[in-house]
Amino acid sequence: xxxxxxxxxxxxxxxxxxxxxxxxxxxxxxxxxxxxxxxxxxxxxxxxxxxxxxxxxxxxxxxxxxxxxxxxxxxxxxxxxxxxxxxxxxxxxxxxxxxxxxxxxxxxxxxxxxxxxxxxxxxxxxxxxxxxxxxxxxxxxxxxxxxxxxxxxxxxxxxxxxxxxxxxxxxxxxxxxxxxxxxxxxxxxxxxxxxxxxxxxxxxxxxxxxxxx
Length: 213
Hints:
Elements: H1 11-42, H2 46-74, H3 76-95, H4 103-132, H5 135-163, H6 169-185, H7 199-202, H8 204-212
Helix pairs in contact: 1-2, 1-3, 1-4, 1-5, 1-6, 2-3, 2-4, 3-4, 3-6, 4-5
Main location: membrane
Transmembrane segments: 12-28, 48-70, 82-106, 112-129, 141-162, 168-186
Keywords: Membrane, Transmembrane, Transmembrane helix, Transport
């Protein structure tokens, strides 16, 4: 499908994107709170676990610039879908991390995929809101997106605490499930290419402020 100026964003698309944002917070926020339990369960050195925790932020920070330019070239919807695939892959890798010698490699790989998903989904989705919503509808869409970000942080902390007794792996399985649902909800959205150059890069400061402060 090609870009259509007549297409208007709807709640199905918006909430599908928000689910991708919530999936980001589930693995970003909860890992900070449960990394000690994860290291213990996986028989992993604490220093290696610290690397696994921080590497997501590293890769998302590095690739946000790359993906920002890529979104302007191949289309934001395509990049958002790629981000969802990264999110699902990363969450499943973390959730299925084996105990023992291979734990560090699998966990770090999963965290890298999660970092790439954040770099793809977060800024491109904000740019998509600018393209497919106008006026008051755009203000509402941005407000809901922001609630998914700020509220997602609190939700992830609460959810992580509730899931400790069930098992930390289910946090990441839940994140993968949210990403799958979000991917289904955004299905059928036409491609959109920017009318203005580098719109994705223009909203990067917003992304950084929301996610890393």
